[in-house]
Amino acid sequence: MDQSIKAGIIGTILTVFISISIYVPAPFDFLPIFLIAIFIVYVFRLSTIKDALLAVYMTYVFNNGILGTLTLAIYYINNEPYSFPVDPYTVLSPIITSISITIAAYIGVWLNKKRAPPPQKQPPQQSTDIPPELQTV
Q1: Is the whole-model pTM more than 0.85?
Q2: Is 128 helix (H, G, I), strand (E, B) or coil?
Q3: Mean pLDDT, the chain, whole residue set
Q4: pLDDT category, 5, cuts 50, 70, 90?
């Protein structure tokens, strides 16, 4: 669980920086977040769907919250009125987000299942002065 929270925080930081630096048009604006979420699940080797969903959900929700706050702050600083147009994309955006969260978590776990397991550290051999034939287990 602790690893998934770290993954969610790192994913949030990455998506905020990517979303600020790259403009993606409205129907495809979820793609950078989607790809970073899969990348985070893969890098942190989250192998259960529960941990992957937690990390991806944190990435999406915190990213949307931070970017929404920055947008409103820019309107406030510029003393501009904020208008909220309701169009089909605005209505369908939460549904698209929830579906892409589930798909990103599933793809990340699926990629980790295909990945080779991490190398295991071998315990160091203890050197003894007793010959091997006299040692007992």
Answers
A1: no
A2: coil
A3: 87
A4: very high
